[in-house]
């Protein structure tokens, strides 16, 4: 228990120390996000590269607290590839195809290090394909949801704590340490990222968080009590995945390219409806917490029928939320 407490405190402290240094450097070298009066409505330029602070806090925490096994080294190497990719992308010089290839390489490193979905009732090759698709989905889902001060970092922090609880239940010390280190790094970063944000995650941070949470969620143990619980990682990361599917659906209806930047995200629609930025972020984090607790309930019930009932309720509520959000008029 003391190792967990020390890991969390160290991660928070490092994040609180490193983030303002990165912010100062980004401002000094003009690595900033400038308002454009459309999607970017902040009053003045905001420093990028916040993800670098999260990454460094996470990396240093692990280096000082835990033995670096093959799986951890694989996660750190793939995370480093994603961070470098994100830094280049934050300079707006990376074509989408190259960005996709870089993400695929990072995912391949994870699979090569033995970090992939392992379900005994599925063929090995299918587990590898499913792992690749899952990691690409979570990586880009957090990249897409990073549209509001504190949103991606807040949801990532909540998801990390939920995965820590799952790891404790299953007695997976390796996953528990990594999720707690990430939670602490994000919590410290939120002091500077919550509205009004003084620094943004940028692609550096959102891609890193998505890849890491995707990896840590898929290697946990979920099916001891019922087989349906294999879907729990989707529930825990439900908010960014919901936003991705919702954005794809709305843009498809409007005949827009999926990668086209538009105010279709659920958070922007909630703010357009009547909520403030802070209220939207807090509500989103609360919804993420509820989904996470529902996921824990799913893996704990001894019956597939009960687990299916929880899943059906979540899907029903998700459908209702999508219907409501689609009605919000986003025209100016």
Count up the helices.
13
Could you tell me the strand content as a percent range? under 5%
Element order: H for helix, E for strand:
HEEHHHHHHHHHHHH
Number of strands: 2
Helix content: over 70%
Structural class: mainly alpha
Mean pLDDT: 89
Count of domain modules: 1
- Regions with pLDDT < 50 over 5+ consecutive residues? none
- Roughly how many Å is the radius of gyration? 19 Å
Strand order of the largest sheet: 1-2
> What about the largest sheet?
2 strands, antiparallel
- Gap between N and C termini, in Å? 52 Å
Which of globular, elongated, flat, extended, rod-shaped describes the shape?
A: globular
Task: Describe what is shown at a glance.
By secondary structure, this protein is an all-alpha fold. 71% of the residues lie in helices and 1% in strands.
